Structure formats: C-alpha cells, structure tokens
Amino acid sequence: MTEVKMTVNGKAVSGTVEGRTLLSQFLREDLEMTGTHIGCDTSQCGACVVHVDGQAVKSCAMFAAEADGAEVTTIEGMANADGSLSTLQQAFQDHHGLQCGFCTPGMVMSAAALLAENPKPSEAEIRHYLEGNICRCTGYHNIVKAIQAASGQDVAIAAE
Ligand code: FES
Ligand code: FES
C-alpha cells in the first residue's frame, strides 16, 4: 500500500492505495466523487477523462499513485464558484449535447482541455479532439455544436 497526496478541485486530499488502484477508482471509491464515469475501464470510451496538471487524461489509464502530487480537476470542479453551470456546461445543456449523460463528464473535460489550448476550434478540430470520447446517444452533432457555442462561435440554439 502507498500513501498518495494530490489536489483535487483545489482541495488537498490523501489516501492509501494499492499499486494497482486506478486514478478513476481512487476518485470514485476513496473520494466518493462519482461524477467521473467508468464506461469501459480499458481506455476506450473517454467517460473517465479528468485533468491532471492541466492535461486531459483517461483516469482509468493512470494509477492513483502516478497522480501523487498532481493537480487534478474532475467534472465536480467545473461549475462556477456559486454552483451555477460553467459556460461550457451550460452550452451542453442549451444545445442538447447529451441524452443519457453517461459520456458527458468526459466530454466536458475533454472539451475544456481543447478550448484551453485552442479557444476557437473548427468543427473538424473538435471532432478530431473528441476521437477518444465515445457517445452512444447523440451522434456527436450537438456536442460539437455545444463546444462551438461555448467558444463564442455562432451556432443556432437547438429546437426544444
Ligand atoms: S472508463 Fe476510462 S476510457 Fe472508458
Ligand atoms: S449522451 Fe449517452 S452516451 Fe453520450
């Protein structure tokens, strides 16, 4: 067992983990932060994406011990300080970028990482960046629109 310490959504946390404990497991089971979803556990689906030191990472593809000392941000850390949805989250809602919502935490975290490095991505750039995030419901169209809208690009609000 190893002791790990990291900062999660601005808060110092620590725990004792096995060498094989995945970061996704540590977040969900030890910290009880279940916003990070697990869709496959084999690094295929992207539902578990979080930010580690500012980089989008599939948390099922990283051991918790590897994140020792890191700054981690999860979907729980994406809302505004007053608890309201961030611009990106609101855009997912406004543009119907989700149906079942299972992929949504990972989509939002990947999209946030994309917008941090490319504030006005084209549709092609968004689609390319989201290659590691699988959505079984939406056909991606409204997710792409939501990300374009969050980046200040003009897209029509989806019909109710
Ligand atoms: S649960 Fe991590 S990629 Fe699917
Ligand atoms: S909204 Fe259902 S998997 Fe994406």
UniProtKB/TrEMBL annotation:
Domain 2Fe-2S ferredoxin-type: 2-78
Domain of life per record: Bacteria
Pfam families reported for this sequence: Fer2, Fer2_2
Protein keywords: 2Fe-2S, Iron, Iron-sulfur, Metal-binding, Oxidoreductase
InterPro entries assigned: 2Fe-2S-bd (IPR002888), 2Fe-2S-bd_dom_sf (IPR036884), 2Fe-2S_ferredoxin-like_sf (IPR036010), 2Fe-2S_ferredoxin-type (IPR001041), Beta-grasp_dom_sf (IPR012675), Diverse_Oxidoreductases (IPR051452)
Protein name: (2Fe-2S)-binding protein
Organism: Pseudohalocynthiibacter aestuariivivens
Record lineage: Bacteria, Pseudomonadati, Pseudomonadota, Alphaproteobacteria, Rhodobacterales
